[in-house]
């Protein structure tokens, strides 16, 4: 579940270009540092899930360690993280499919037509129940990763664009120094978003103290190694001096398949990318609609959103509400800044929202272990590692403020800050009813628990 939610194919196909725009040929460093952070976080969160196994995940982690208000804010930020993924992915699906149809078959269909078709398909599938389709995405996941790795092996076996260069792991290859690598980490961390989703099943699996822990570590390490291998390959495939081409390429892996492979490989790469986007979109829609449904059922939102469809037993009203919000964002952003930038900007916003959640979980873990007098017993596990992960997460956060990035990346962090302030205001009002306040936080923090259900 964690590996599928990260979506290795879609992450590598599209996040590499954005990361290269900041880090240049040093992009693999951005992903390598992101992997180190993700592994430490996976270990910390896995350890936390041993002592606090719960479907509430980050809400519970922050609440137990720091306090209920921090727990609520964690859930609040996780909610925007998951909810922005749907319009981002649908915009990406539209522009990618449109480009491929035009270049491959000479068929010119506007991106928004294809995006709307994808949106309608996801809406229909969610309304009738997506359990079987989500099982299918697990099979597609294996196929997508297989195709990706085959292409990477072919590119490296043929010597890349002008040889194989290991200096891509040198910070000197970044055009703007470490600040470029740090900004590239925003898309590195975006590629790992979802590694934590296995924690939400802690109440439903056998021996959660063991199995959830190893699921987090194993999936994060596996996918992270794929990321480093793929980023190393794509930089060498384009050539160290062609990072501007990589940054502006809507489908860099399709470009590499065209140059180093054949028609069959190009087709497989294209289909793998599109299916990966669609799979993530379906999962995200299900997850967010479930949260909206529960909030309607608890009368936090209008009660009509908390009703099930009599025929399909799915939260149709909640699904339609989430789909309507996604449609508005898709069209407004898509026509205002273009579909590719819609993915890039929304992806950056949701990552900047989720990074503080990871930090609160780490700090919460330390404080919780301190309250249990366990820090002195295991200082490396219960103090040093969580602090290291929090400090490393400050790298992409600080780079979002200084040196001041170009517009509009300079304003994206402030969008998250405004959203967080609204969350604090909502939390203060809900605190008047402690039981309701706790329940709302649990619901928000449970956003990813039904991604593959």
What features would you describe in this structure?
With 453 residues, the chain is mainly α. It has 18 helices and no strands. It is globular and about 60 Å long. Helix 3 crosses helix 15 and helix 8 packs across helix 12. It has one domain: Amino acid/polyamine transporter I (Up-down Bundle), CATH 1.20.1740. The termini are close together. The C terminus is likely disordered.
What do we call the CATH homologous superfamily?
Amino acid/polyamine transporter I
Q: Remind me, CATH topology?
A: Amino acid/polyamine transporter I
How many helices?
Answer: 18
The fraction of residues in strands falls at under 5%
Number of strands: 0
Please give the alpha-carbon distance between the first and last residues: 10 Å
- Main pleated-sheet profile: none
Binned, the helix content reads: over 70%
Average of the residue pLDDT scores? 84
Unreliable runs:
448-453
Number of domains: 1
Oligomerization state: single chain
Coarse shape: globular
Order of helices and strands: HHHHHHHHHHHHHHHHHH
Subcellular location: Membrane
Membrane topology: Multi-pass membrane protein
Domain Amino acid permease/ SLC12A: 10-395
Keywords: Membrane, Transmembrane, Transmembrane helix
SSE topology sketch:
Blueprint: H1 2-6, H2 8-23, H3 27-51, H4 58-65, H5 68-83, H6 85-105, H7 111-128, H8 131-157, H9 177-192, H10 208-238, H11 243-248, H12 252-260, H13 263-297, H14 316-337, H15 339-371, H16 379-399, H17 412-430, H18 434-445
């Amino acid at each position: 579940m964690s590996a599928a939610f990260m979506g290795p194919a879609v992450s590598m196909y599209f996040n590499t270009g954005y990361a290269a725009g900041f880090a240049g040929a040093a992009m693999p460093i951005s992903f390598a540092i992101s992997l180190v952070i993700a592994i430490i976080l996976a270990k910390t969160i896995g350890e936390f899930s041993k002592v606090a196994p719960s479907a509430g995940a980050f809400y519970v982690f922050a609440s137990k360690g720091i306090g209920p208000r921090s727990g609520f804010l964690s859930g609040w930020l996780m909610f925007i993280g998951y909810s922005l993924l749907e319009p981002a992915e649908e915009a990406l699906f539209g522009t990618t499919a449109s480009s491929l149809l035009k270049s491959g078959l000479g068929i010119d269909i506007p991106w928004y037509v294809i995006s709307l078709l994808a949106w309608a398909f996801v809406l229909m599938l969610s309304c009738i129940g997506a359990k079987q389709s989500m099982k299918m995405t697990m099979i597609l996941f294996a196929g997508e990763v297989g195709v990706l790795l085959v292409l990477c092996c072919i590119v490296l076996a043929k010597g890349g664009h002008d040889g194989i260069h290991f200096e891509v792991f040198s910070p000197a290859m970044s055009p703007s120094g470490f600040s470029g690598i740090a900004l590239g980490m925003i898309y590195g961390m975006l590629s790992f978003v979802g590694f934590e989703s296995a924690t939400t099943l802690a109440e439903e699996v056998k021996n959660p103290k063991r199995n959830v822990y190893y699921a987090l570590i194993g999936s994060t390490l596996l996918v992270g190694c794929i990321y480093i291998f793929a980023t190393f390959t794509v930089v060498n495939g384009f050539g160290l001096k062609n990072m501007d081409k990589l940054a502006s390429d809507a489908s860099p892996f399709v470009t590499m398949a065209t140059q180093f492979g054949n028609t069959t490989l190009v087709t497989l790469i294209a289909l793998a990318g599109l299916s990966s986007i669609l799979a993530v979109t379906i999962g995200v829609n299900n997850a967010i609609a479930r949260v909206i449904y529960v909030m309607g059922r608890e009368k936090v939102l209008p009660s009509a959103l908390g009703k099930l469809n009599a025929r399909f037993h799915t939260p149709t009203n909640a699904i339609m509400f989430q789909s309507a919000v996604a449609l508005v964002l898709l069209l407004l952003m898509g026509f205002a800044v273009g579909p590719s930038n819609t993915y890039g900007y929304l992806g950056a916003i949701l990552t900047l929202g989720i990074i503080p959640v990871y930090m609160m979980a780490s700090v919460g873990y330390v404080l919780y272990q301190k309250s249990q007098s366990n820090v002195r017993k295991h200082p490396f596990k219960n103090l040093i590692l969580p602090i290291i992960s929090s400090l490393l997460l400050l790298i992409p956060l600080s780079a979002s403020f200084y040196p001041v990035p170009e517009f509009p990346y300079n304003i994206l962090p402030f969008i998250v800050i405004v959203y967080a302030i609204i969350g604090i205001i909502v939390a203060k009002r809900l605190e008047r009813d402690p039981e309701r306040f706790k329940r709302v936080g649990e619901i928000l923090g449970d956003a990813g628990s039904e991604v593959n259900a």
